[in-house]
Amino acid sequence: MIDSGTSELTRxxxxxxxxxxxxxxxxxxxxxxxxxxxxxxxxxxxxYDGPGTVVDSGANLGFGRACNLGVQQLPPHIDAVCFxxxxxEIDEAGLRALHARLRSQTSPGVVAPGIRxxxxxxxAGFRYPSFSRQSAIVIVGAVRARRARRRGRDLPRxxxxxxxxxxxxxxxxxxxxxxxxxxxxSVGGFDExxxxxAEDLAIWDSLRRAGFDIGFAPxxxxxxxxxxxxxxxxxxxxxxxxxxxxxxxxxRVPRRARLLRFVHRTALRTFAFGDPVLATRLDELWRAGxxxxxxxxxIAAQLARTSDDRRD
Length: 312
Prior knowledge:
The chain is α/β, with parallel strands linked by helices. It has 2 domains: 9-124 and 163-224, Spore Coat Polysaccharide Biosynthesis Protein SpsA, Chain A (Alpha-Beta Complex); 129-158 and 231-306, no CATH class. The chain has 10 helices and 11 strands. Strands 1, 2, 3, 4, 5, 6, 7, 10 and 11 form a 9-stranded mixed beta sheet that branches. It has a two-stranded antiparallel ribbon with strand order 8-9. Helix 4 runs parallel beside helix 8 (254-271) and helix 8 runs antiparallel to helix 9 (276-287). It is globular and about 50 Å long.
């Protein structure tokens, strides 16, 4: 077990993004500030009236862009930042342990805890996406979507079981990450093309490629009440994840991204019942051959005006 009593939290900033999750955030901010952390709440819905330093973004900027804005508001003495979902629970000892683990790195970059969601426990994050893995997820999801459509219901959420097997490249979930501020800023922060999903994968990979240390603290486990307070349909979340993964692969292995688009287009009709507006827009963009970055930018512009999403 990491010695959790030696990490000073007065140099730690915590950034939370609000989009109609204020009932969850108020108590979390009160706790975090009582532990000595500096807390910034970026309000993407202009509905938060609680404690902490509040930044009204004026629109739903999405997760990554809002987090970048939050980091900019932190005082200069803050040298580490925790990105913290409103529906995540972490205790003081766990937060201190994550901070201590980050500070123990040779070239501090990013540390992620283990995450428990319902019956699923992920001590070492998620596997990097690949064409074959994403295709399998889409195919299985299409089967589930057909069943949901027949029953007149939204696509059900599925918590894919985590594994203690750490083989293969993995990344930590943006639901709870702690990063070195200077490292984060040196790689440009979160890529603002992403609206929701895969921005955590991208920042993790960018820090790794830049030579910063990346690591997991599996002996620190946070509880993620996935989706509590979020209004977006599960179908919308899934389609946003498709677009995010496609963009990520386009920046690393473009040929695989083009193949993946074919898979996404083939399955899109099956998912359209759950979010016909987003599905129609994706279909238009994909048929027009829009590059993945443009697809995300167009989606972000639409959702910034109409979305009820919050990072989940």
